[in-house]
Amino acid sequence: MNAIAAAVALWGALLPGAALDDAEPVRVAARLEAKRGATGASPLAIAFDGPRGDGRGGAKGLLVCAGPEWAKLGTRWAFSYARGGSAFGLQIIHPFKNGQVIVHVKKEGVGLSTSRAWAEAGYGGGDRSALRPAEAFKKHFPLEDDKAHRITSTLLPDGAYEMKVEDELVVSGRVRGATPLSFELKEGQRFPGASGWGKLAFEGEGFLPRWRHGFCGILVEPLDSGQNAVSALRFAPSLRKPEPTDF
Fold it and tell me: Is 6 a member of any domain?
């Protein structure tokens, strides 16, 4: 190894996430919108519908699987997000070790959850005490209605997490552990933000309710009026098709 290569390797070792920064983001979808679903979605993504919530409907999601290098590099979601009206919010799901971490983005703030069952977190706001607000948090939250916010969500292999809005750090924290996430809902099962009527289930052609190693995704939560959508949705470092045999 020459001196330049050694220096680059040392720099990458000293700065976790540097290699992730070098990875070319992969397009997941041109747009994912509550009630309308996905447009321009990658063939590697599986579209699904989420359950109703507090009289609201139209939750839409995309399930993907991170490429094998994610375990060493970490993962990053990047997109533009706009919400307004009665929209609940957004869930960003990262793979971590053998499980998943949900990042809950609401109008008022950001929280984390690492529950085994999605029903434990539901459409709630997650644990906001798990994240430290940065100086720019008050600049961007509460999120302004009907305005596009450029967001990146990054989780590194050591559990270090950060979210940026318009390239400014808004929250950071550390994930200690995670378990495989199940989206199975029993008939009549209640969860935070559940609706009192309508079908409460995750559905979609090819959707896998028991998430495996490397599975991750995006869920735009339900609304009654207004908008709730992400656009220019990208993921790093790479993607592959989720398979039921993944472990």
Answer: no
